[in-house]
Amino acid sequence: MKAIVMSDFGGPEVLVPREVDEPIARSGWVIVKVHAAALNWHDVLVRRGQYRSPLPHTPGADGAGVRVDTGEEVVILPSLYWGHRSAAPSPQFQILGDHTAGTYAEYVSVPEECLAPRPAGYSWEQAAALPLVGVTAYRALLTRAGLTSGESLLVIGAGGGVSTMALALSSAVGAQTFVTASTSEKLDKAQRAGAAGGVLHTDDNWPQLAKELSPNGAGFHVVLDPVGLWDRSVQTLRPGGRLVVLGANVAEQVTMNVRPFFFGQYSLFGTTMGGGEDFRDLMDLVSTGRVVPPAIAATYSLADAAAAHTELEAGGAFGKIVLRC
């Protein structure tokens, strides 16, 4: 079969198309013929060697395709070995494409429990783009922060896959969503996708500007920070608000004043990609038809994975970049 294989860690050029053996059937696992594989920033970190993947290695967390054994059209949850506690993953937890061959291939082998039917009305590209960002945003906003109808949400960094999915899920549950963005173009696209308003986080005083946009200027019930700016994001909360943190691609360390935090009665939630329970709840919500499918920024052939990674790292895309396999 055709697959993308890394023989070394490095830049996009290490993603090389090759012919490799198809996966072998094993108990409890299912072989899926991949129709589309969506890119995530996690894939970039795998490519750079952060997860110490075995070499040679095929990356890729997200995918959608057809079960070889039954012919069912499915999406793949890339959460492996989550464990039995919904509160947190087990020590064995890993993401598909970390140490297990991933979805940048014509076929992939995954645990049967990590499959769900392809949602009605979703293209292959949209279905492939749903699982990782979908379950991540669902766990962050609904499982962890408990976002409900009538509340307000601020999403830091409009344009990324998690951010655009957060907007879709927030709208689906009846919350009002605002965003920050790095460019006016991304801000405009977010508003066309349903955001009630937004500010550029390139402005030094963006926390104050964002807070002024919140209902009655009181601050937001929930702030989702997938980039690592939460020393500033916390300034946009209303008293008693909840800050959800799930990424650090902008900053890995923050310094905060403790007194304003506890006087504000704020809650801070750390989260990451969810497990099977989050996935099932996400798919139940998607099945209602209220969740807008993921925005697709660009589609590449499997052989052009290096070019797709180059576009992803450039940071200009609004929505997901997808490989057709």
Write up what this structure looks like.
It is a single chain. This protein is an alpha/beta fold. The protein has 2 domains: 2-130 and 293-324, Medium-chain alcohol dehydrogenases, catalytic domain (Quinone Oxidoreductase, Chain A, domain 1), CATH 3.90.180.10; 135-270, Quinone Oxidoreductase, Chain A, domain 1 (Alpha-Beta Complex). The chain contains 10 helices and 17 strands. The strands form 4 sheets. Strands 3, 4, 5, 8, 9, 16 and 17 form a 7-stranded mixed sheet that branches. It comes from Gordonia insulae.
The CATH H-level homologous superfamily of the largest domain: Medium-chain alcohol dehydrogenases, catalytic domain
Low-confidence stretches: none
Terminal CA distance reads 11 Å
Q: What order do the SSEs take from the amino end to the carboxyl end, as H and E? A: EEEHEEEEEEHHEHEHEHEHEHEHEHE
Write down the overall mean pLDDT: 93
Strand content: 25-35%
Structural domain count: 2
Helix and strand composition category: alpha/beta
Query: What oligomeric state do these chains adopt?
Result: single chain
Tell me what the CATH architecture of the largest domain is: Alpha-Beta Complex
Q: Remind me, CATH topology of the largest domain?
A: Quinone Oxidoreductase, Chain A, domain 1
Shape: globular
Largest sheet: 7 strands, mixed
Radius of gyration: 19 Å
Task: Give the helix proportion (percent range).
Answer: 25-40%
